Amino acid sequence: MRVRPGQTALMIWTGSESETESVTVTADDGVRLWASRSGRGVEPLLLCHGGPGLWDMFEDVAAMLADLATVIRWDQRGCGRSERCAGPWTTDRFVADLDAVRRHFGLRRITLLGHSWGARLALAYALAHPGRVNALVYVAGTGIGPYTDWHPAYEQNLLARLGRNPEHLARWHELKGRAQLTEEEERERALLQWSAEFADPERGMAYARRMADPWFGVNAECNTSLNAEVKRAADVHRACQALAIPTLILDGAHDIRPRSAVDSLERALPHVRRVTLPDAGHLPWFEDPQGFRQAVHDAWA
């Protein structure tokens, strides 16, 4: 099944929706985190959203997996519905926050699904606490090699994808060049950039608008700090080689981040399976919801 023009993934999966319980989780340093629980499945699945500096956009994913798992979503510190705070903005701090979410819901072991930056966070958690993770689903991440292995190509691909609509590209350059933006201009710049994340140019902007609804604003300080940390990240090849957790690497073939960057992680992990959805970009559940659901379902098989 594919999404038809004008549809989003959630419209396909309305029959799997269930009641959502929203809660406040208090981290060990007192910062309050927004979290929610939904789904009717027995297995706990904890989702880690992308960014950094964004918020949970997994409503569609939670709906499509509601019969497979009890789905836990959360907004990372300082982002979205979580308490605005002064950080700290480090992977170690976010790993501790993720563990606070696990404890709040009384979960001894979890399956983790992380997307983009959230895939890096989920992997970091699995490396820090392997005894608490049943399986890892690593969606649209960028591997464990050097930042320079993928980021220059990503920038070139972003400009090329935006260039499918010259007006969008010109406006994106204009907004990117400004020192300060209004909230509406910040949202507009995000929409333009996010539209390039999708393989289908006709639906990209509609998908981007869904990502931005509701709009909580990007935490720029969080984004800058954690991206700087990514650039100087330590080599974790040896730790990944010792990771006994079953891992699914799930990609969209049209992701503007080169998928070859993830080869480093695939080679390092001893228990890994990789699925590439041929018609999808960086957020594969939008463009191939059936393929995405099947791949995640098979991760439990």
UniProtKB/TrEMBL annotation:
Annotated Gene Ontology MF terms? Answer: aminopeptidase activity
Please list the GO biological process terms of this entry.
Answer: proteolysis
For this UniProt record, the keywords arranged alphabetically read as follows: Hydrolase
- Does the keyword Hydrolase belong to this entry? yes
Query: Which family is this sequence assigned to?
Result: Belongs to the peptidase S33 family.
InterPro entries, A to Z? AB_hydrolase_1, AB_hydrolase_fold, AB_hydrolase_sf, Peptidase_S33
> Which GO CC terms are listed, alphabetically?
membrane
SUPFAM superfamilies the record matches: alpha/beta-Hydrolases (SSF53474)
**Domain annotation AB hydrolase-1: ranges:** 44-289
Tell me what this protein is called: Proline iminopeptidase
